[in-house]
Write the C-alpha cells for this entry.
Amino acid sequence: MFSIDVRGISKVFRIYDNPTLRLKEIIIRKKCHREFMALKGVSFSLIPGDTLGLFGDNGAGKSTLLKILAGTLAPTSGVFNVNGRVTALLELGAGFHPEFTGRQNIYLNAALFGMSEEEIRDREGDIIAFSELGDFIDQPVKTYSSGMYVRLAFSIATSIDPEVLVVDEALSVGDQHFQKKCIDRMIHFCEAKKTIVFCSHSIYHLQQLCKKGIWLHEGEIRMQGPIRDALDAYQDYVRELEGKNKGNTAEDKELAQVAGHGDRIVCIDELWLENGKGKRASQASTGQDIRLRMRIRALKEGVKGHVGLGILRNDEMLCFGTTTLIDGKPAVELDDGRDFCLHIDSVPLLPGSFMVYGLVTDEHGLHAYDISRSEPIKVSSDSGYYGITAMGHEWRL
C-alpha cells in the first residue's frame, strides 16, 4: 500500500497585472489574466519508510507540490492520495496566530492537524520540552524570534506522530543545538518507517537523509530515482549551465550555512598538508604521496561524530572528499586536541593552487559542527598534461 500516490498532478496559477482585473474578469466574463503552469503532470509514489528528497532550481514547483501534498493547495488536474496523518513544516510560522501564546498555538496547530483536545493535552508537555522555549511558551508568538518560531513549529509537527512528514528547508533555521535535535528526530522517523518528503537546497542533507530523489525542473520531473543518481544528474546540469565547475561552490556554501556561526561544540583547530615523510609542506608534486591532516578543538567531552577531509581547488571546485562515515568507519570520539590523517597515494593532481578541506559532523553525518580549509598549497608537475588530474594512459597508434 502506498503512503503517497501522485498521478498526473498539474497546477495552473492565474496571474493578474493588477487586482482590479480580477473583478473586471468576473463582470465582463472575459479573460483578463495570464496563466502560469507551476506543475506539469507530476507522478510518483512512496511506500511507508521511504524518504524522498525534492530539489531543483528556484521556481521549479517544489513548494507548490509540497503544499498540495500537505492539503493546503488543490491541484488543477490530476489526483493524489496520502494515507495516514500528515504534518507539514512549510512556511515559517504558518498557522500561528500572532496574538496567541505559544501554548495556545500548540492547541490551535495540533487541532488543525486533526488531533483531539485530549491527545493534545497528553503531548503538550513533550512539545514544550522539545521546543525548549521555557517561560516564553506563555508569551504571544508575535514576540518570538525566527528561531523560536521554528522551534515551536517543528516541535508541534513532529510530536503528533504523523505517518507522513512534509518538510521544506526547516533544518536551515535555528541554532546549532536545535538543528541537531531536529536531525535526530528525523532519523528516528526514518527508523520508525515513517514517510518523509524533504525539500532542500542542501545537497549534503539530501544525500545523507534521503533514499529517493526527484529533480523538478520548470514544473516537470526531470529525473527520479536513487538520491545519489538524481543529485549527480542535477549537479551535472548546474555545472553545464554555469559554464564552470561552480556546482561545488554552491555545495560548499550550503555546508557553510549548515555549520553556521553559533556556539560550536567541536571546532577545526588546524588543517595542513604533509609530504610522504610526515613533514609539513606548502607544496607537492603530481604523483607524490601526501597526507591531509586535521586537528580539532572540543568544547564538550564525550561527543562522537565523523570527520571528513578533501582537496579543494582555489576556484572552489571540490576535487576529492570523503568522510569516515562514507568509508564505513564507526563514529569516533571527538576529543579535544585529537589529530586525524588521510593518506593519499600518488596524488594525481596537475599543477594548480589547492587547499585541504576539513569537515566535522555528528554521528549521523548530517549536522556539520564545523567546516574549514587550509592555507593555499601549490602542486607542480613536469608532465605538461592539461586538466585537473593525471590519468593513466597509453597511446595505441
